[in-house]
Structure formats: C-alpha cells, structure tokens
Amino acid sequence: MGVRVEKATEADIPRFIDVQYETFCDEPYHDALFPGGDSPELRARAVERTIEEMRSTPHLHVLKSVDVDSGTIMAIAKWEFYEQERPESEWKKPHDVSFVEPQYQEKALAFLEGSHAVRYRVWEGRPYLLIAMLCCHPDWQRRGAGLALVQWGVDQAKQLGLPAYVEATVMGQLLYEKAGFKPVDAVVIRKEHTGRPEDAVYVALTHDGGSKTNPETDGGENN
C-alpha cells in the first residue's frame, strides 16, 4: 500500500468531515468546536463551514493523505502558514465563536482561549507553521497516512526556514515525536469547561524545521 499527499479540494470536504467526526467522536476539543453530537445535518453544516474557511483563509493549506491503490482518503490535515512577523493586534485579537449556537459559545471560547494562550507564550508574533488539525480515519490508522501529512509540513518548514508547532492529544503525541517534534508546553482545559470528570490536556510540541531558533531553547517555553 502506498500513501500520496495531495491538496484537498472542496469536493473532498464531505469525506474530510466524515474522517474528522469518526476520528474525534469522543474528543473534548472537537465536541467544543463542533457541538451537538453527530447527525447528517451537523456534518453538512461542518462541510459548509470548512469550505468557507478554505475560501476565506489564504494562509490555510488543507491536505489529504490518499491510499494509492484504492484512492480512499485515509487522513486529513490543516496546516496554517504564518510566514511573516505579526503585530499583537493580529495574533492576540478576540476570538469569534459565532460559528456555534449561543448555548455552546462559552465552552468553545474556553477551549480557544486555552490553546491560544499557550501559542502566545510560545510564539508571540514570530513566524511559524501550525498544524491546526490532523486526523486519520480509524480504519486506516498505523499505515503512515498521518505521518505523511506531518512530514509534508515539516518539509515546507525546512524550505521556508521556519519552525513548526502543534497541540496534540496524548495519543497523538507519539506521532509528532516520531517526526521530530519536542514538547515545550501544555494546554490544560479545566473540567468545569470540558463537561467531563477530568481536565483536557493537549501537549504543545515544536519542530525547528529550517529555523535557527526554537522556543524550546530560546525562552519561548512556559517555565
């Protein structure tokens, strides 16, 4: 079986959303940003939202990892390229949670503020590449599909001379460490916001890519 990484098109997004829902069906972050459970209607709304995001976000790269033999999309990823220094007014602007229903907005805001607080500490306005999302359908895991999407971005980071960054689930951490990422911090969402018996923890990891500096060694880590 071979794996091929390609840019996703709008026609791929229904499958993209299916992979996302099947992979993250019980994941707190997904539940916060795509609330209400699972239904054909909710998936259709997620498709529309993702297509709009693709059209309106020039620094976003939406990718798919395809099985060469069958043509099946096995895994998907969103990479965001912040290639230039950004002013604080841009990287620390308030979060818009109008994409979810009012009853879910407090929870969505807690998750976004938690993750972005770590990004502020690690990067401030410095350039870097972000893995905003990566997931592999359960039926296609452990075949190199996810790693191929990570490596695509690492290769881009090396070409651009920039570091890369991701916030990973504890299970996903091993994948990123295999690709050369190293832990530098952690996002902790308190249980009062997760709606679950425990806090949600995501490991913040960086890869130096082609950069001569890295927050892990240059003071960006939260000590």
Write a structural description.
The chain is 39% helix and 24% strand. It is built from 8 helices and 7 strands. The protein has a 7-stranded mixed beta sheet with strand order 1-2-3-4-5-7-6, with helices on both faces. It has helices at residues 13-23, 28-33, 40-56, 88-91, 105-123, 145-160, 170-178, 191-194; strands spanning 3-7, 60-67, 73-82, 128-136, 164-168, 182-189, 200-207. It is an alpha+beta fold and 223 residues long.
Supply database-style keywords.
alpha+beta, disordered C terminus, 7 strands, 7-stranded mixed β-sheet, globular, 223 residues
Tell me what portion of residues adopts beta-strand conformation. 15-25%
Assembly level: single chain
Give the terminus-to-terminus CA distance: 44 Å
Number of strands: 7
Brief write-up:
The chain has 223 residues and is of the alpha+beta class. The protein is 39% helix and 24% strand. Strands 1-2-3-4-5-7-6 form a 7-stranded mixed β-sheet, with helices on both faces.
Strand and helix layout:
Blueprint: E1 3-7, H1 13-23, H2 28-33, H3 40-56, E2 60-67, E3 73-82, H4 88-91, H5 105-123, E4 128-136, H6 145-160, E5 164-168, H7 170-178, E6 182-189, H8 191-194, E7 200-207
Parallel strand pairs: 4-5
Antiparallel strand pairs: 1-2, 2-3, 3-4, 5-7, 6-7
Helix pairs in contact: 1-3
